Amino acid sequence: MSTERFDCHYCKDTLLGKKYILKEDTQYCTKCYENLFANCCEVCSLPIGCNCKDLSYKDRHWHENCFKCAKCSRSLVEKPFAAKDDLMLCTECYSHEYSSKCSTCKKTVMPGSRKMEYKGNSWHETCFLCQRCQQPIGTKSFIPKDNNYFCVPCFEKQFAYQCCACKKSITTGGVTYLDKPWHRECFTCIGCKRQLAGQRFTSRENYPYCLDCFSNLYAKKCVGCTKPITSLAGAKYISFEERQWHSECFTCMQCSVSLVGRGFLTQRDDILCTDCGREK
């Protein structure tokens, strides 16, 4: 009666009574398995055999005895470590060589610890404090001023202007008009409430107006088209006997020829060119 063979899948040597490795339901002798599948150690370049622990980090592998700090050679097995330029370092060596110093307490900011960074400076999270209330700012918004840092509520209490419209603090930007501060969104035309920041505007009795509202409210009306005449937008106009016309509207009532720079005649409220006036 024959016995079924139990061989290495690669070299075909019998595995009966021998140690073997099973990979994806396929058996290999230890020698073939190591030649085919074992990872090479980053330090000694030798295969990491079946009898050794394979320590890995980001697709790199080490023997347990080879996984050491590149600076002090202390074992990194089951200890915190850091990677720098393909080197594996214990936290002490990494801190000494590369870690930043806290701008407040001047101690090393250890890798992996919570920290705050701003404009090239670093702080322990518990050392980055509001200058006014001395509480850690953490992940909250802050405002820098004169090499100090303030949480938003403290900055508003100590430094921010109050908008003369809504009475709330102005923390960024803003507009000054008649020596008074405004939020950009609060600085609006007194007539139509359109925002005026960055736009041309005028004022009357210290109230700001957009050009359209000012013209509609206060500008003289053209006799020809009845629309406002305003010089604010650079418009040219003709004035005669307390009446005004846009330059393009100052035309003969009968033949519509332009009268700008020409002689004209009046007939009651009508303005006529000299030719039409003689015909009357």
Automatic annotation (TrEMBL):
<dbReference type="Pfam" id="PF25076">
    <property type="entry name" value="LIM_FHL2-3_N"/>
</dbReference>
<dbReference type="GO" id="GO:0003712">
    <property type="term" value="F:transcription coregulator activity"/>
</dbReference>
<protein>
    <recommendedName>
        <fullName>LIM zinc-binding domain-containing protein</fullName>
    </recommendedName>
</protein>
<dbReference type="Pfam" id="PF00412">
    <property type="entry name" value="LIM"/>
</dbReference>
<feature type="domain" description="LIM zinc-binding">
    <location>
        <begin position="100"/>
        <end position="161"/>
    </location>
</feature>
<keyword id="KW-0862">Zinc</keyword>
<keyword id="KW-0863">Zinc-finger</keyword>
<feature type="domain" description="LIM zinc-binding">
    <location>
        <begin position="39"/>
        <end position="99"/>
    </location>
</feature>
<dbReference type="GO" id="GO:0008270">
    <property type="term" value="F:zinc ion binding"/>
</dbReference>
<dbReference type="GO" id="GO:0030018">
    <property type="term" value="C:Z disc"/>
</dbReference>
<keyword id="KW-0677">Repeat</keyword>
<feature type="domain" description="LIM zinc-binding">
    <location>
        <begin position="220"/>
        <end position="280"/>
    </location>
</feature>
<dbReference type="InterPro" id="IPR001781">
    <property type="entry name" value="Znf_LIM"/>
</dbReference>
<keyword id="KW-0479">Metal-binding</keyword>
<keyword id="KW-0539">Nucleus</keyword>
<dbReference type="InterPro" id="IPR056807">
    <property type="entry name" value="LIM_FHL1/2/3/5_N"/>
</dbReference>
<dbReference type="GO" id="GO:0005634">
    <property type="term" value="C:nucleus"/>
</dbReference>
<keyword id="KW-0440">LIM domain</keyword>
